[in-house]
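Ticket closed. Logging final result for Glutathione S-transferase.
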Amino acid sequence: MTSLEKFEGVKILGTWTSPFCLRVELALNLKGISYEYIEQDLRNKSPLLLQLNPVHKKAPVLIHNDKAISESLIILEYIDETWQKIAPLVPENAYKKALVRFWADFFERKVIETTIEFTENLKVFEHGVQKDFEGENPFFNGEIPGFLGVVVCSLSSWIKVLEMVSGERLVVTEKTCVLFMASCFQ
Ligand SMILES: N[C@@H](CCC(=O)N[C@@H](CS)C(=O)NCC(=O)O)C(=O)O
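Final structure:
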């Protein structure tokens, strides 16, 4: 691909095993945005992936209006801002929005990206969202799945793997967030 080539519509450079790619697809599907999905072989990275994500060289990459965006959480924010009126992922209230972003960031850095403290951090996450979103469903923005729901649900297919890694049953009671993400895809 050359930089002169134009991208039309919305495309995702993704890989089917990746929860990070799945969350981008979830957000686009929630908003009803059609896209072309281009599967990537991460053992043999394509020139297109390397060109569009030269810093991290990772999937997903979203391509929209001739522009490439990397990092799944940033892509989610871009999608939400670009198609703001359809199925908004974050609450309008600035404080609530900040809480959603705080817990999404925590989940990303302390739950997904850690292995040793994974289960401890998951408990902190569950406790924190229950406290900050008391009486509300932290994974929904009103009636529709929201930003945190998309981020957490994207991990659903990895629950078994995480249970094996941590040696703990993660889906324990009906109240756990982890059960929520599993049930989302049933
Ligand atoms: N923080 C990134 C993580 C993306 C990521 O780790 N992608 C993996 C696939 S699951 C990847 O492309 N790995 C290739 C590599 O590490 O070289 C995001 O949220 O988009």
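Residues 61 and 120 are 31 Å apart (CA to CA). No further action required.
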